[in-house]
Write the structure tokens for this entry.
Amino acid sequence: MKNCIFCRIIAGEIPCTKVYEDELVLAFMDIAPINPGHILVIPKEHHTSVASIPENVGGRIFHVGSRAGVAMKRALHADGFNLHLSDGTCAGQVVMHAHLHVVPRSLEDGFHWNWRQLKYASDSERNAIAAQISEKIKLGELSE
Ligand code: 5GP
Ligand code: ZN
């Protein structure tokens, strides 16, 4: 995609600090990290949404992300790591080329997800919502 910043990074038109590359994915340093070492793993093919990424590519993104997380623990002495993906503007996606964030974490890094914990009104409300989602899950279907 011509005016996609991450496609332009893949094409070499915009520089990046590369961490890992293979035929399916590229991993590079995020320009504005949550913590030093924060990287992005992206598919080489343009996908706006993670939902249109084929299983083999999605599997590679997750595999590279988790191995990079382990590398952060070994190389940066991180205590752990977050894998994070925002899909859609309302979810916080700013760059419209699907990407997995890998963020090294330490006990003293002072960063906290703004993670709220609502309650369901009843078990049946929770079960009804679960059934609605379950009915619509179609493996093998790629969509935006
Ligand atoms: P999002 O909010 O879409 O999940 O995350 C986009 C991420 O891309 C942000 O963390 C931002 O810092 C990073 N980013 C945006 N533009 C560039 C760029 O030109 N180069 C690099 N390396 N990272 C970028
Ligand atoms: Zn793109």
Remarks:
- The two ends are 16 Å apart (CA to CA).
- The mean pLDDT is 96.
- The beta strands are 18-21, 25-29, 39-43, 80-84, 100-105.
- The longest strand covers residues 100-105.
